[in-house]
Each structure stands twice: as structure tokens, then as C-alpha cells.
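Question: what's this shape?

___
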Amino acid sequence: EFRGDPVVSAAAYMARSETGEDGTVRIVPDADLPAAGLIRLGAALRRAGADRVVMVTERGLQ
């Protein structure tokens, strides 16, 4: 999900998200997502154009 709406692919996410000036994409992954899925997601975002993917915890947002 991106801001409550389903996202079908990393490319669709990249089209809707805001990247930092340095090409960094920050995501807050679901705590139930298996580690392998998280790694695949990061790789897909890189293939879709992110220069860097930073995974942030909900605690890190506070």
C-alpha cells in the first residue's frame, strides 16, 4: 500500500512516491513481511529507478 491505496508493482510505486534529491526512496515495510520478500521489494524498487532504498521502522518515524 502507498498512503492507504494498493500498489501493484515497484514501478507503480515509484511513479507515485517522492524520492529524495539523491534518489533515495524511504519505505515502512509491513512487520509481517518475510525477510526474503523485503529483499525482493528493495531490489524491485532499485530496478524501477530508486538509487537507494531505505527501510524505516514505524518507531523511526516518531
